[in-house]
Amino acid sequence: MVLSGTAPPTTTIQPTTTTTTSTATSPGNTTVPTQPGTEIPYGRLVTGCTVSGTVAVTFDDGPYQWTSALIDSLNAANVKATFFMVGKLYGCIYDYASVVQKAHNSGHQIASHTWEHKDLTSLSTADQQSQMTRLETAFKKILGIKPKWVRPPMGAQNSQVLSNLGNMGYKIVTWNFDSQDWNGASVSSSQQRFNALGNDPKIIPLEHDALQSTAQQLGPWLITWAKQRNLKMVTLSECLGEPIPGGQYTNVGGATPRDSSWVC
Ligand SMILES: [Zn+2]
Questions:
Q1: Out of 60, 119, 178, 209, which one is annotated catalytic?
Q2: What would the pLDDT profile of 45-65 be if each residue is shown by its tens digit?
Q3: How far apart are CA 55 and CA 91, in angstroms?
Q4: Based on the structure, what is the number of domains in the chain?
Q5: pTM assigned to the model
Q6: 197-232, pLDDT tens digit by residue?
Q7: Residue 211 lies inside a defined structural domain of this protein
Q8: pLDDT tier at 3 (50, 70, 90 boundaries)?
Q9: Which domain holds residue 199?
Q10: Any idea what the CATH number is for the domain that residue 132 is in?
Q11: CA angle in degrees (0–180, nearest 5) for 216-14-240
Q12: Would you say residue 55 lies in a domain?
């Protein structure tokens, strides 16, 4: 089984099967090709890459105890990924501040996965905003940036959520390839799914660095898989042709030394 350690109930990371998420598994149906160097507008929902020859591997639900070694594996191969981080789920983001900084300093993209991984479609507008701003505060303290990209927990979104997130300065991304690691799929079964893909699938694969088997086995294996396919493993913004880092972050300054406010 893939779950190990002190993982919370798997229900917290399962994509829902409601109609609000049906677009998440339909490759590319809302991804609008953009001119290279053009930023995706706030409020837009993206599901797949647009730049040929790229793959934007995404890791959700960390930072957690496996994240640091995964970053080391990516760095050793000189490839990039995107981390959709939460404030409080498996661990508390402030307890992994050095891991968050290592990921950012290594050039991996940092994005929001909300503070507590709640289904945004079930929350009021104010509660949705609170889920975003609490994590913004943590990113400001730890990194001095505000991410411009968010992945709604479980991919759950609707027009109200998209509008609200857009008004808060966010672009929204789900995925167009699911390795099913969150659903108990074995590493070999996930690998078979990747191996069955075509030559230039322009995928944004959904992975979870909070799962030990993904961080230690599937993630590192993907580096080799991409190389063999002649695919460049890049950040989300790079696979969309966005300016970097302008498409990724707003620089809000003020990364600060740890103090007593660094708690969940
Ligand atoms: Zn998640």
A1: 60
A2: 999 999 999 999 999 999 999
A3: 28
A4: 1
A5: 0.88
A6: 999 999 999 999 999 999 999 999 999 999 999 999
A7: yes
A8: very low
A9: 45-251
A10: 3.20.20.370
A11: 70
A12: yes
